[in-house]
């Protein structure tokens, strides 16, 4: 059973008792610590947790997670981070048995139109459903390469992978 919000808040109170204070950005600058340079875009699915399968420590990488791990919903954020922090690499990671392969955009649109019948914008919305994992990684890399907000250098240093939830391994997607 998933915990309740109240249970999570209780956990927070307990964890805060032994919390190590995080440095502010200016403290990090004074200590010569650099912010993360690698940005990871992956799925929100709890089974696809890059902290686990990449052994990430705090500060190793920036992680964006959304349905499937698509670029479009976070493209502006990536561009902003690159200006602010200077990114070196982007990893796009989709995963086997992704929920996005189990629903269709039409299914979500129909559900939303039932809930919000007067909203005329829903028909033109997409919700990240995919049918082919490797192709979806390639499509997201293509969005980076074609974006007028992403530098050529960063787009060229963007790589795509499929994460296998059974083996725990990443497989590179060749373009
Ligand atoms: Zn997923």
TrEMBL record:
EC number of this enzyme: 4.2.1.1
Keyword Zinc: yes
One Pfam family of this chain: Pro_CA
Keywords: Lyase, Metal-binding, Zinc
SUPFAM superfamilies (UniProt xref): beta-carbonic anhydrase, cab
Keyword Transferase on entry: no
Required cofactor names: Zn(2+)
GO molecular function, one term: carbonate dehydratase activity
Positions contributing to Zn(2+) binding: 43, 45, 95, 98
Catalytic activity: hydrogencarbonate + H(+) = CO2 + H2O
Cofactor binding summary note: Binds 1 zinc ion per subunit.
Family from the record: Belongs to the beta-class carbonic anhydrase family.
Function of the molecule: Reversible hydration of carbon dioxide.
Protein name: Carbonic anhydrase
């Amino acid at each position: 059973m998933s915990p309740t919000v109240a249970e999570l808040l209780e956990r927070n109170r307990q964890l805060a008792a032994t919390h190590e204070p995080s440095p502010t950005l200016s403290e990090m600058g004074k200590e010569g610590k650099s912010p993360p340079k690698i940005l990871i875009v992956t799925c929100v699915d709890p089974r696809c947790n890059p902290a686990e399968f990449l052994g990430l420590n705090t500060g190793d990488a920036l992680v964006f997670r959304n349905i499937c791990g698509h670029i479009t919903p976070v493209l502006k954020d990536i561009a902003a981070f690159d200006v602010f922090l200077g990114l070196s690499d982007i990893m796009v990671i989709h995963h086997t048995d992704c929920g996005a392969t189990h629903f269709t955009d039409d299914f979500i649109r129909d559900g939303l139109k039932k809930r919000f019948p007067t909203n005329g914008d829903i028909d033109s919305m997409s919700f990240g459903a995919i049918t082919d994992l490797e192709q979806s990684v390639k499509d997201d890399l293509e969005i980076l390469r074609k974006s007028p907000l992403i530098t050529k250098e960063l787009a060229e240093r963007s790589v795509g992978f499929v994460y296998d939830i059974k083996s725990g391994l990443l497989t590179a997607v060749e373009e």
